[in-house]
Design goal:
The structure is a homodimer of 222-residue chains. By secondary structure, chain A is α/β, with parallel strands linked by helices. Chain A is built from eight helices and eight strands. In chain A, helix 3 links the parallel strand 3 and strand 4. At the A-B interface, helix 5 of A face helix 5 of B.
């Protein structure tokens, strides 16, 4: 299997993460790099969704992926197999990424020439929501087996996300998952959130998601 | 629906959580209260497993449940419907419970007369593993849809857990889940971990889990 680069990212020494995040966003705007922060629980399908996203968009734009994990490099190896730029970020036990860690990741990725950089954040519905990474937009994946009540229990995550991908809709009939309630709860947290039901395994819904992402990247680069 | 008590627990002012945890464990031993710390990702089935556990053991021992959540009281309402003592702990955005918060919860629960107190920790595979709550044992639930690779990615959780319940085995055939690999990865982290495959929805495996918990409580009270 292809070797992947592993970068140990260090927590910010700066007290003001929000300021660092704003500065990173300005840099990205200047360099015409669109950064997406992708968050979710462990095992909701971030990496499989990323594989589909790369497949859908890699012929139209340069993509780079940062895989943040506490340990292991299994996800970065999977991503590297698609041929896009990728790097594994190890957080040294940290449960989230801040703006400075994200900047270190982008430097490590040598992201200057990519159109779309995607940060796969640590699998966690709590802490990553508290830290602005400097991304242009936040996305989260909620998978059907996790249940439609998650926006009630993890309010901040669904408040800060611009788009929610509801994944694993192929197994909907095996779980007590109410899509209507799910949408209602998400919109209680963020009335403007875009909700896209997908199945990363079969590719269902990926077209709509790729359309959204494409128009985001184009608008950012104008 | 029955009203539940909601307690806002505050983070410890003590620097040394390990010391607080040891003291709490000694208190619990003196009072013959067995405390189990139950952890998992969001949506892996902690509450449903608890419902089954209560059903299996409530005629033999007094049970009390603390439901920790960042927000909402849906889980505590569910538990309250079984008739056992229960309380909702709100962590005010905190991603885990420490020993002092657990002590506040036990006081709020008035747990002095229970044989088995269960703390349902915040749904998170990262942070709760870092804080000794003072519990006698740690358990975690890993559900089939999350994937068998989770012990590779969230090493500390599987290192600190004495028992791992592999839940939702009824949907095994719909997911690429390798139970043998899962066991291997768990034992890489903790060779002594007991692994019990269960289906909280149907009750499969709950007997073995209840047997383990019963013998733990009895040994603690001797």
């Amino acid at each position: 299997m292809k070797d992947v680069r592993v970068l140990e990212v260090k927590q910010s020494v700066f007290a003001n993460n929000d300021k660092q995040a704003e500065e990173l966003r300005k840099d990205l705007k200047r360099r015409k790099v669109y950064l997406l922060n992708l968050m979710s629980s462990p095992g909701s399908g971030k990496t499989t969704t990323l594989m589909r996203t790369i497949e859908a968009l890699k012929d139209e734009m340069k993509i780079g992926v940062m895989e943040a994990d506490i340990d292991s490099d299994v996800d970065a190896r999977t991503i590297a197999s698609t041929g896009v730029k990728s790097i594994q970020l190890h957080t040294g036990g940290m449960c989230h990424l801040d703006a400075e860690m994200t900047r270190q990741g982008l430097d490590g990725l040598e992201a200057g020439d990519v159109d779309l950089a995607i940060l796969e954040n640590v699998g966690n519905l709590v802490c990553p929501a508290e830290f602005d990474t400097g991304a242009c937009k936040n996305a989260c994946i909620l998978s059907v087996p996790e249940g439609h009540d998650k926006p009630l229990k993890y309010p901040l995550m669904f408040t800060v996300c611009d788009v929610v991908l509801v994944n694993k809709i192929d197994v909907m009939s095996y779980f007590d998952f109410d899509m209507e309630k799910c949408m209602e709860y998400i919109h209680m947290r963020n009335p403007d959130a875009k909700v896209i039901p997908i199945c990363a395994k079969t590719g269902e819904g990926i077209g709509e998601w790729a359309d959204w992402l494409r128009s985001e990247v184009r608008a950012w680069q104008e």
